[in-house]
TrEMBL record:
Chain segments annotated as coiled-coil in the UniProt record: none
Renumbered residue ranges of the record's region NMP: 30-59
Domain text: Consists of three domains, a large central CORE domain and two small peripheral domains, NMPbind and LID, which undergo movements during catalysis. The LID domain closes over the site of phosphoryl transfer upon ATP binding. Assembling and dissambling the active center during each catalytic cycle provides an effective means to prevent ATP hydrolysis.
Family: Belongs to the adenylate kinase family.
GO cellular component: cytoplasm
Protein name: Adenylate kinase
Protein encoded by which gene: adk
Top EC class of this enzyme: transferase
Molecular functions (GO terms): AMP kinase activity; ATP binding
GO terms for biological process, alphabetical: AMP salvage
């Protein structure tokens, strides 16, 4: 099973992605984690990524695509995966489709979109910034990131909706409630797919 997990920064994608990964027995591939690791290691791409992240901008496609393509070539993803943080826009979604085809893999099965109101996202991310000491989680930067997310990802939601793959669920409520809703949506959708 190949799942794309979408949602604005702070919607709970990381937590839900980990839980879904354990539930379905497939790896969660987080581009955010990979980028933060590159920043910590101060690689050339990591330094470029840090400058964009600190300014509240999205990291360039070429950096993100390179990380994803390398990861999708590894053996542990042949049974499926959960992509968290990629694709972010229609261009990347089309690149992902082409990547999977080049590697002889079937396309994405389902796209789970976690929806959370803007003010709740802001509250969560400010709290996370304090708790984790993340320099990229200031109010001004968060608002910029949310605006960029809406601009870039709005057309992506339409892209997957047109393909009949988009499952939108609320990212509000307890972690367990959101997880239950997500599993129910994915299981129901996948069960209805033609064999």
């Amino acid at each position: 099973m190949k799942i794309v997990l979408l949602g604005a920064p702070g919607c709970g994608k990381g937590t839900q992605g980990e839980m879904l990964s354990a539930h379905y027995g497939i790896p969660r591939l987080s581009t955010g984690d990979a980028l933060r690791a590159a920043v910590r290691l101060r690689t050339a791409l990591g330094l470029e990524a840090k400058a964009a992240m600190d300014a509240g901008q999205l990291v360039e496609d070429r950096i993100v695509i390179g990380i994803v393509e390398e990861r999708l070539a590894e053996d542990d993803v042949t049974a499926g995966f959960i992509l968290d943080g990629f694709p972010r826009n229609v261009r990347q979604a089309q690149t992902l489709d082409a990547m999977l085809a080049r590697q002889g893999q079937a396309g994405i099965d389902a796209v789970l979109h976690l929806e959370v109101p803007c003010e709740e996202l802001l509250r969560r991310m400010l709290l996370r910034g304090i708790e984790e000491g993340r320099s990229d989680d200031t109010e001004q930067t968060i608002r910029r990131r949310l605006a960029v997310y809406r601009t870039e990802t709005g057309p992506l939601l339409a892209y997957y909706r047109e393909q009949g793959k988009l499952l939108t669920r609320s990212g509000c409520g307890s972690v367990i409630e959101v997880f239950g809703s997500a599993v129910s949506a994915v299981d129901g959708f996948v069960a209805a797919l033609p064999l």
